[in-house]
């Protein structure tokens, strides 16, 4: 792997008397896919929300491209190149594909405070993107509600790619997908490395994570208990670590 893109040092987060994360070190290299796994309540989602600025850590430091950062909102993290694709994909069902891709970041025509949407430009960009991500048969005007789960994932990924993501976090990307759609989504995530994009994949499906990750990190009750190259372990070994709550 190349140099580190993201580094977290000694991250601790409490919610009242509950310690969600305790002195967690975590890193992602450039062009690397890191699988983040663990049982329910392990701290995976909390760590992801700290990375994207939804939560502030109680202690610890975060570095992006070698510079310390302190995100106070997901918008700040997004501007820095960190995107998250949630399990529900955060798309608006009643809007079409191109409006979802540009949601909150629309292309406008005009000067000063009065602008109108440049629908033509947004449709042209959307058409190019959906061809690149393998759903070229879809019209940018189609409502997202009419897409399959895998196609919705692809749209969310296309949006992140277009707006210059350096790191994309995937939260349960294959849940509720068919076997074929799961395969397509995993291939799409793997292909992001060719674009210079790093990924964090959070999933309960250890085999899916193992298939595409370069390295796997296991959390247990807020602590990191394993950080290992994919090539040095198997899905069965990772499952045993999670089951026993410690490296075995």
User: For the record, what CATH class of the largest domain applies?
Assistant: Alpha Beta
Provide the number of structural domains: 2
What summary fits the major beta sheet?
6 strands, mixed
Q: Report the helical percentage.
A: 25-40%
SS-based class = alpha/beta
The largest sheet has its strands arranged as 6-9-10-3-11-12
* Principal-axis shape: globular
Q: What Rg do the Cα atoms give?
A: 19 Å
Poorly predicted parts: none
Output the CATH homologous superfamily of the largest domain.
P-loop containing nucleotide triphosphate hydrolases
How many alpha or pi helices? 8
The CATH architecture assignment of the largest domain turns out to be 3-Layer(aba) Sandwich
CATH topology of the largest domain, by name, is Rossmann fold
How would you state the average pLDDT, rounded? Answer: 92
Outline:
With 248 residues, this protein is an alpha/beta fold. It has helices at residues 44-51, 74-79, 97-101, 119-132, 149-162, 179-191, 206-212, 235-244, and strands spanning 4-15, 18-29, 33-37, 59-64, 67-69, 82-85, 108-109, 116-117, 167-171, 198-202, 215-220, 223-229.
Topology (SSEs and partners):
Blueprint: E1 4-15, E2 18-29, E3 33-37, H1 44-51, E4 59-64, E5 67-69, H2 74-79, E6 82-85, H3 97-101, E7 108-109, E8 116-117, H4 119-132, H5 149-162, E9 167-171, H6 179-191, E10 198-202, H7 206-212, E11 215-220, E12 223-229, H8 235-244
Parallel strand pairs: 3-10, 3-11, 6-9, 9-10
Antiparallel strand pairs: 1-2, 1-4, 4-5, 7-8, 11-12
Helix pairs in contact: 4-5, 5-6
């Amino acid at each position: 792997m190349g140099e580190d893109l993201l580094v977290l040092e000694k991250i601790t987060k409490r919610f009242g008397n509950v310690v969600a994360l305790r002195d967690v070190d975590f890193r992602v290299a450039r062009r690397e896919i890191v699988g983040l796994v663990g049982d329910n309540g392990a701290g995976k989602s909390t760590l992801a929300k700290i990375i994207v600025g939804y939560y502030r850590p109680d202690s610890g430091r975060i570095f992006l491209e070698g510079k310390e950062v302190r995100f106070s909102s997901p918008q700040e993290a997004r501007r820095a190149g960190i995107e998250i694709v949630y399990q529900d994909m955060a798309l608006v069902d009643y809007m079409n594909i191109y409006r979802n891709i540009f949601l909150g970041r629309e292309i406008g025509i005009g000067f000063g405070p009065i602008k109108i949407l440049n629908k033509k430009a947004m449709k042209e960009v959307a058409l190019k993107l959906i061809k690149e991500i393998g759903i070229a048969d879809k019209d940018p005007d189609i409502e997202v509600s009419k897409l399959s789960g895998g196609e919705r994932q692809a749209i969310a990924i296309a949006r992140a790619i277009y707006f210059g993501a350096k790191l994309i976090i995937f939260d349960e990307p294959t849940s509720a997908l068919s076997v074929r759609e799961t395969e397509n989504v995993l291939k799409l995530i793997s292909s992001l490395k060719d674009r210079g994009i790093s990924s964090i994949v959070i999933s309960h499906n250890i085999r899916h994570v193992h298939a595409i990750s370069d390295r796997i990190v296991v959390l247990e009750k807020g602590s990191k208990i394993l950080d290992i190259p994919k090539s040095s372990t198997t899905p069965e070994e990772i499952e045993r670590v999670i089951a026993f709550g410690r490296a075995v």
